[in-house]
């Protein structure tokens, strides 16, 4: 056993020294195909918008849903670098939150938040259903006992092993 270990150690040392090739690599066969003609799709020219030195816009929206009670609105205007606006929404606690905000290069973003109670009328979608379960009469069925079943165990026969082998030890 020691002889095998010494031989393997010598082979590893020889391979590490470069005397014996360490490994043989196998590569898949290379297939050469004819060149494929490829035409790139035409590049779409993007429209470049010119820089607006003084942008201006104004927008607003309002939602009033009587069925769900959803109520919100917003309006905003921009004139150059100055933005002013306001939005309001009814919060789940029943208050109306209104935020008035401004933004400009000198003061940054500033917001003032106001909350006020609101009586929201929400329409009922469906009336509640009353449920009364009728009492259930329960009668237990009589228990019937079956006659015992006779059981006779058959004897267990153990056969002798056919052959023995010496244990194999691996190191």
TrEMBL record:
GO terms for cellular component: extracellular matrix; extracellular space. GO terms for molecular function: structural constituent of cuticle. It comes from the Eukaryota. It comes from Papilio xuthus. PANTHER family: CCP84AA-RELATED (PTHR12236:SF94), STRUCTURAL CONTITUENT OF CUTICLE (PTHR12236). Keywords: Cuticle, Repeat, Signal. Residues 1-17 form the signal peptide. The keyword Mitochondrion does not apply. This is Cuticular protein PxutCPR67Bd.
